[in-house]
Amino acid sequence: MKSFVNEDDGTMGFQIAPMVDVVFVIMLFFMVMAGAVKVENELSTRLPGSAESSTATEFNDETIISISDEGEVSLNDEPFDTPGSAELPQLRATLMRLKENADNAHQPAIVTIVSDAHAKYSRTIDVLNALAAAKITNVTFNVSEE
Q1: What is the CATH code of the structural domain delimited by 62-144?
Q2: How far apart are CA 4 and CA 121, in angstroms?
Q3: For 61-72, how does the pLDDT look when each residue is reduced to its tens digit (9 = 90+)?
Q4: What residue ranges do the domains of the chain occupy?
Q5: Which of 12, 109, 143, 146 has a CA between 20 and 30 Å from the CA of residue 52?
Q6: In 35-136, which residue ranges form alpha helices assigned H by DSSP?
Q7: In sequence order, what E strands does the chain have?
Q8: Helix, strand, coil shares, percent, the chain, to 5
């Protein structure tokens, strides 16, 4: 008698061996990587927070001297002297008062010179001479791109 079941159809059914191999490979990967991960409390980082102090924090005021391309000198946006004045007597007197007030308050006098990119170097030297006459030494420079 002939059987109606074809034994050569090629279906093998569900294969469990490749699935077990894949699971073991994934498990091995996670076991190896678990040793390389640092726990967060082991990291040496400090997060910013609020600091308590017994004294008040004082911020130093910064004075800005602007030099335009025409040679006009301004102290905190207030024009001083004429563009042709090389001695800058008004600016020099104001800087001397600024230095005296800063010394009385036991704080440094901080000055930033903001010069236009097309301003003459001689005008910057005139401002530096006025700062030297007032004995102000904390001076920084900035060039305006406008």
Answers
A1: 3.30.420.270
A2: 106
A3: 788 999 998 989
A4: 62-144
A5: 109
A6: 89-104, 121-133
A7: 62-67, 73-75, 78-80, 110-116, 138-144
A8: 35, 20, 50
